[in-house]
Amino acid sequence: MGKKKKTSLFFTIGPLVLVLGFLVWFLGNIFEGEKSRIVLQPLPDFLSQSQDFNISISDKKRGLKYLRVSVHQEGRETTVLEKRFPFKGLLNSKGFHRYNADFSLDPNKLHLAQGRVDLEIRVRDYSRRSGGDGNLALLQHKMVVDTIPPAIRALSRMNYVNLGGTGLVVYQTSSDTVESGLFVDKLFFPGFTIGKGSQEGLNVCYFAIPNDAKSRPDIYLWAKDRAGNLTKARFYCQIRRKRFRTERINITDRFLERVLPYFSFYQLDPALNNTEKFLKVNRQLRKENNLIFFNLRTRTGTDQLWKGTWARLKNAATMAGFGDRRKYYHKGKIIDEQVHLGVDLASLANSEVNASNRGRAVLCDRLGIYGLTVVLDHGQGLASVYSHLSGINIEVGQEVMKGDVIGITGQTGLAGGDHLHFGIMVYGVFVNPIEWWDSHWIRDNITRKLAILNR
Known about the structure:
This protein has 3 domains: about 35-145, Immunoglobulin-like, CATH 2.60.40.3880; about 150-240, Immunoglobulin-like; about 245-430, Glucose Permease (Domain IIA). By secondary structure, it is of the alpha+beta class. A hairpin with a 2-residue loop joins strand 26 and strand 27 (about 380-390). Helices cover about 15% and strands about 40% of the residues. Strands 20, 23, 24, 25, 26, 27, 28, 29, 30 and 31 form a 10-stranded antiparallel β-sheet that branches. A 5-stranded mixed β-sheet has the order 2-8-7-4-5, with no helix packed on it. The model has no long low-confidence stretch (mean pLDDT about 90).
């Protein structure tokens, strides 16, 4: 009898428990409280021009019901994107649970004023919460509308620069400028801020006209503000054309046998003959070495370290000039052509090499075809190069004064005899060192312009 009562009670209460469980599950499902997920990319701080955005929204449970993207500024609201999602299937099982869209904000088309603007994204789902409106997911992103470009103008008016030479321009920028400089075609030369207080916005920029520049390179000042607005300014800059010397260099078998063992560190195919090995060194390794020189530009300091005329190797004869178009011959046949990017100076063997001006060592090491090499940074993009040394007397990071002994001449690397290969770089671009040895050139092209900073 007792067993029958228990069985009857089970069949009576069991269905009630199931119904109650289903009811709890059903109500929990349709009244769920999980908000939709919103992902917005990118998240810019400024809006200076038409900006593309991507929005990704998702709701794993009840599904998406409504999306609205709007911008708010000074009490005015503008809808950018609005979409309603249909309810499909049992409990919206076939409805939208994920959605991805692209949109753009153009401050001009939206008639946005300069200043703060709020981007707002509202998403509701099909939950029956909030009186049937559903859970509200809200994402707000604050930006600043800034469509006004910075101002920039040249202060040093007349600029005459030699092909393969150095130029300097003194210019002024507005206070909102965060980066500025000068372009010569696609080469960028950064400016360095000098003025403070009443002279705020004064900058100097050393630039190079490459020895192989086209007849009329595109030269202009450039500035960018924190919102990404860009501006350009032209100024008078006359390029003096220059014809470079052509030099014939005869490569003998004896020279190859002497110099190639130095490059044992460089992976040369043993199957190549000596001439082919030389060409790989003279072309490929040279290119790699010049890239290392170019990359050193980022290690320049912001302050001017140098002063006055730059020193030349004492009691030295000029063996090769800057920009020489070298033609290499082997057994009467031309095998290669390269451009010489420095001045070769020869004195007595193992002569002391002095720092041409005050600077800081940024490279003291073996460098391929250039052999043992020292590079001194003189600040604001200027650097001097000393190559083919037999010994180095300083270390990277060490500051030296003009005239300090930094090494000893030699014939390391791809050198035919004991000499110093001396070079000057302007933000990684080699220029003619002769200009920097000339006190009149420095006075007319550098010092007079720098005097503008003291007015």
